[in-house]
Design a protein that fits this description.
11 helices; globular; three-stranded antiparallel sheet; mainly alpha
């Protein structure tokens, strides 16, 4: 009996010890991508949504909790961990931050697989997706996305100004007004609001909607909503500059326009979510 008790005590000690060792190893291996990610969240306007998404993801994971009967998958978890450590090493040599950060998320998923199994990952699908969205895209991809959005916002904004009888000439992303030129810069492309609205669409869909098709539909609808409202913002800026004062194209007023437009976009997204939820209640699609 004494020998059995001693073995039980030894096993109880080894389990937390292995968790501590694994946690320290994870911390050491992925400290750099963690610190650079937090730094970008704090200092890069294109990555600032991570300051909201990551805490929300942690809270949702805590609310969802752990599965009742964990089924650890040690082999699969270790394989994923090993692959992510290799990717972390290679991306570190190449100084490629995006891949390095993805390896961080993959390694965290490997730990969950090792300790609790795939059912736990499925249970945490929404927090995991929010964490994935909090990783900033590479500059090359951001640039390739921002330029078409700049041109589109310029075209739609100029078209709306013409409807209001404002004399305009469009040259690329430059809207020329009498005595004034408006530059639709990368910051005004709507990429930030588009990213934030898509993330909110995923969050709202995951919390309010029951079906996979409804969640996908809500995210898809968020894209044109963001684009149209950003064009309206460009129109409002040009309209106020032409009819009121050129100073309204910059400073506090310009920033306020952006926040008001985003609040309107979020309200529209909520209305769309209610509409999709009504369709679900009427029996469209399969419950997800």
């Amino acid at each position: 009996m004494a020998l059995t008790d001693a073995r039980l005590r030894a096993g109880a000690f080894q389990a937390p010890a292995s968790v501590v060792v694994a946690g320290l190893a994870f911390f050491v291996a992925f400290l750099q991508p963690m610190t650079t990610l937090v730094h970008d969240w704090w200092s890069d306007p294109n990555a600032g949504h991570g300051l909201l998404l990551f805490p929300v993801a942690v809270y949702l994971a805590w609310k969802r909790g752990l599965v009742d009967e964990p089924e650890p998958q040690h082999g699969l978890g270790l394989a994923l961990l090993a692959a992510c450590v290799l990717v972390r090493y290679l991306s570190g040599l190449a100084a490629e931050l995006f891949t390095m950060r993805l390896s961080l998320i993959g390694a965290a998923a490997g730990l969950v697989l090792y300790a609790y199994g795939a059912r736990q990952l499925v249970r945490w699908w929404l927090p995991g997706l929010l964490v994935l969205l909090s990783v900033p895209l590479p500059v090359v991809i951001l640039g390739s996305l921002a330029l078409p959005l700049q041109l589109q916002a310029s075209q739609w904004g100029a078209a709306l100004l013409k409807l209001r009888h404002v004399p305009v000439r469009l040259a690329g992303n430059v809207i020329q007004l009498p005595g004034r030129s408006l530059f639709v810069t990368e910051a005004c492309s709507g990429l930030r609001s588009l990213t934030a609205l898509v993330a909110l669409g995923i969050l709202v869909g995951g919390l309010w909607l029951r079906s996979a098709w409804g969640r996908v539909l809500l995210v898809v609808l968020a894209i044109p909503v963001a684009m149209v409202l950003n064009a309206i913002r460009v129109f409002l800026t040009g309209f106020l500059v032409f009819y009121v004062a050129p100073s309204l194209a910059e400073g506090f007023m310009h920033l306020t326009e952006g926040w008001v437009i985003f609040v309107v976009a979020f309200a529209i997204l909520g209305a769309l979510a209610l509409g999709v939820a009504a369709l679900e209640r009427r029996g469209f699609g399969v419950r997800g």
